[in-house]
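REVIEWER CHECKLIST
Item 1: Sequence provided? yes
Item 2: Single chain? yes
Item 3: Sequence as submitted:
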Amino acid sequence: MKSSGQETVLLNPDPQLQNLIQQQWPTAQAAGHFFALPGLSGQSVRVQMPQGALLARRAPPQPIPFVDRQREYRILQQFRHAELGPQPLAWRDPWLLQSWLPGEVLSSAQFNAQREAIVVLLQRLHQQPLTGYRLRLAPLLQRYWQLCQQRHWRWQRRLQRLLQQGEPQPLRLAPLHMDVHAGNLIATPAGLRLIDWEYAADGDVALELAAVCAVDGDTRPAWIAEYAARAKLDEHELARQIQRWQPWLQLLMASWYQLRAEQSQDDTLQQLAQASWHDL
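Item 4: Structure as written out by the authors:
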């Protein structure tokens, strides 16, 4: 991944991270350089050593529903030969070590332009064996409601309505990434790769497509047509299933922004939370 100018040098890196690196590579020099990476979730560090670069991802200090670095490590282990993302190197609570992917993060324009290649990558993921970790949105949304301090009666009404309806039956169950957007796609010399697997689990492929279309709504029909053709699914049925998942996904996104805004007191996250509730 291309280093960003927003990286921050860590003068006092976490001793637990240093110990993990030393345990995995006893001959590695301790005098590596540590750089905090930008991002809404935070807690990611680029480790630059003479032997090469690593990516370290720390478990969030405050709970984020469904985020589990051990699960993330195990899923990456399962997919390590599928050419989908980084190679997992080690996990020891609270740190997950991965290989650093050489390449550049896609821009929004590149994301739109590389729709065909992204769909091919998603198809390769969705054809992998199930991970054994099932994504259930109903208990996930309830957990967000419990953790957030600021709640609104309209939020409660929307949540209760969805719980009464029940989650849609999967059109096709498969491993999902669940955070596919330009910032999580790396153009490497070997092709596109996905990063940030913290929400990966087994779920409906239509839910994955609903999340992609939420990022790039203007070209939604093109995404649906491209994926349906490659996955040999009926395009209209896929579109209808995406529509069924849309209210679930909208509430999930708004809940995530609300919790992270409260936890971080970050102005950008607070604005995104307000915009999400307004959209609802």
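Item 5: Key structural point noted by reviewer: The chain is about 45% helix and 15% strand.
Item 6: Recommendation: ____
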